[in-house]
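Cross-posted from the bioinformatics board.
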Amino acid sequence: MRDNRSLYIYFGVVLVGVIFILRLFQIQVLDDKYANAADRISLRKQTVYPQRGLIFDRHENLLVYNDPLYDLMLSVPIRISNIDTASFCKLLEIDRAEFDKRLNAAKRNSFRGKAIFKKNISNLVYARLQERLYEFKGFFFEIRQDRNYKYNSAAHLLGYLGEVSRKQLDRQVEEYYEQGDFNGKKGVERFYEKELRGVKGEQYFYVDKHGLDRGSYKDKKLDKEVVDGKNLYLSIDIELQKYGEKLLANKLGSVVAIEPSTGEILALISSPFYNPVKFNIQNRGSYYNAAINDPTKPIFNRAVSAPYPPGSTFKPVMALVGLQDGAITKNTYFGCRGYYKLGRRTIACHYHSYNTSLQKSIASSCNTYYCNIFKNMMQSGKYENTEEAYNSWRRYMRSFGIGGELGIDVSVESRGWLRDAAYYDRMYGEDKWSYARIISLSFGQGELGLTPVQMANVAATIANRGHYYIPHVVRRIENQDSIPTKYVVKNHTLVDPKHFDAVIQGMQQVTRTGTASAIAIKGIDIAGKTGTVQNPHGKNHSAYIAFAPADNPKIAIAVVVEEAGYGATWAAPIAHLVIEKYLSPDTLEVSSRASLEKKIIKSNLIPYKYRTQRDMSLYAE
Amino acid sequence: MQSKSGIDIISVLLFVAIAALGITSVYSATYEPGAESLFAGRSGKQLMWLGISVVVGVVIFLLNANFFQFFSWYIYGACMLLLVLVLVIGADISGARSWIKLGPVSIQPSEFAKYGTTFAVASILSTIGFSWSKLQDLLKIGVVILIPMGLILIQGDAGSALVFFSFFLVFYREGMTSVVLISGLTAIAIFVFTLVFGSWYFSLAVVGIFLVFYAFTYSEKKLLLPSISIVALTILFSLSVQFLFDNVLQEHQQKRIQVTLNLIEDNRGAGYNVNQSKIAIGSGGMYGKGFLNGAHTKGNFIPEQETDFIFCTIGEEGGWAVSVGALVLFILFILRLYHLASRAKKKFKRIFIFSLASILFFHFLVNIGMTIGLMPVIGIPLPLVSYGGSSFLGFCIFIFTALKLDATRDEDLISTYS
């Protein structure tokens, strides 16, 4: 019996051994949930954020650089014990209640082995806390790049950064962004996001229960090298940009200046503007509401996003189309009695002598002349009906870059307004509309809208005698041989280059004898065209396009000043000052027109209804 | 196979292998990058204890084998004295008063109490005329075991007190009625079922089984009364288990048991140790992460990882292969000791060696079982492997004594009652 009992005991010992061995096989070999859990707990992935590319102007002046931004993180699982909470709170400048609140929030919102305790910590607090961080086990810093700016200028065109949105995260093709990452939201920051951002690096390493580094994982084989972003060299001339902003201060409007021979944008101004640093990651929270609630829409980039009817600045284009389409020749005269009669309706012109040549129609901005061109074209025997004639006109417009996105590299671009024939069919009924319904298009009113950058592109196209390069602000990208190819190909209009000289002569007359002659600049031959845009909501918009010198254009420009009055009063002088600043900056300093400059800078043309509602902190240094 | 002096070589080899495994594991479990050699730190300390043990072992082998049996009660008495002493002058370490500080070292008398008690138990059982049916003898046995258990419980070290249940295996081997062991196992089963299903459902199930049983045997009238009383006893026991569990056990003890039975999941609280331990062992895979490369143990995620949870380091760094090797070493060692016991010619020697094997087995069962989530967390060390001088020295002395007793078995010409 005793031998039996010994046997039972031996059997029991072996049985326990077998059970243990099988159990170990189950948890070690069969079930990988434990291995996964171990990696989750003790393996940490640290993201190394690249330096975002710097941004320079055309003379390699630094515009945008990086400022480190510190996020205080917690290692997960969170185990905060034996830390001197009182001195921790003091270093971080928070109180005990906030500490608890943040700790609880971190516990709820942990993500991939870490949780944010406090974001965007200042340099000073970071330096203070970093020195004693070893006392506060479980806390660590993640360093990211915020933007800072050398100039209080060019905010719209540069754009800003923000956290990637939920939508972007869901839609990204290659898994690059993670929750909390920054990307460019507007301007060139958005357009050149891929070039500027670089590639994030990854380091894998083990941590202990306090979140302290315990050595690299698999000899760093899985680690990914960080690649810094590329620097961006813009075509913007920051001095010209600042000068334009100075002139547009306290006005609503835009200035866009382009180098016609390349399509490079020299200045792109939308007013009111804001100090770009107020919209970086650190500061935006404090200024966002002020910016949104300001009725003058300081965030809105009028230069690329706001279409205006071009008004009389459109007349050179209409003349060119008329010449090409055979509606007129360069020697065509029309008589004008100060109005154009259209059945029982009259379209007003203003006083000038009766016999009107092409040049004179541009110089004195005669509406009648253009109504005649338009009528001739729409009723031309070339076309079977008005719709066909209109479609032809519309094709000319598209060839000037009107009515569609140009494809510039500053987001967010508007297409402007240019209706198709179907629109008028819906409006008036099929075949129920004739030229008379849409004749105001001929002098740039009605269902036509151009953004300031489209207007400037028209000026550049005329300056080039029939072609343009898509306007762009990029000049060079670091380590890249070329800029996007679409910016180096010529786009030809449907108007033959031979027609341009006649129109340009008219535009030269504008600054010699015509509407802008009072503000001509000695020594610079400017071809221009004023425009006074009817505005149903208030005073007329003042508009102007120009290029100079007329025979060898270096700069083409468009200026719009909202609710300001005549084109010749505000837009034209601003354009001339900018042209002079660009072409001969030295003479401007001493020119007799210093008083004109002073007057414009001092003038506040913001409608009274808005003035009291502006929050000037957004503009301050 | 044995040496000239009669020492069992197989046991010695297994002992050396397990001790070596222990010291390297302690070294790895307490390793800090760029830190000390094997001979410094805690593994160094463990090596020092091994050295001391060898010295003590030599002394043991120089003694006459009969010395032990003769001085049984003195050794027992000395150990009990230490247990009393620790209550008076002991230092509180992590909630238990189990340690006596002697200059730089602390000793834990409960680790030596098993050794002392074994002498007393072997002495009583090998007395001529001892009988399991004599109440006086049973009382003697009971008192001898309950004294150390009680004293250790007072210290607040329930795990070490439970170890004394190992002696029931000895009693069973030595002829105690198997009813005790069977009832013990049945009681554990009822305990588990009650906690899993609740005493109400359990009782209902028992009554149901009885009714089915009765339907088949109702003609046999004489089975009725005993079976009814068994049912009644079972239900009564189940109800009292529920009551005791709810009202007597402390909350952390309740939770440990519930976590083991998978009744609750509490990976941050009571189940934290076991969960981290399972993760460490489970992440070892087939061949482990390599010596000193156990990220989980290196990260100190498991409390007590160099003492009670030392098996985590083995499991994580050595994987299934090395774990199985370690288990096999223990199983072989225990079986070998059982074999040495069975070949002893003197009853005292047999019982002594058998007790050692059973105590080792109990430690093995509970300690490994706890690290892989098959046993509740009961804080007792893995013999010869866990860090801790008293435990290491205690087991070494225990093992050397047993080997000495085995080595001199041929001197016992008269075979005593087997």
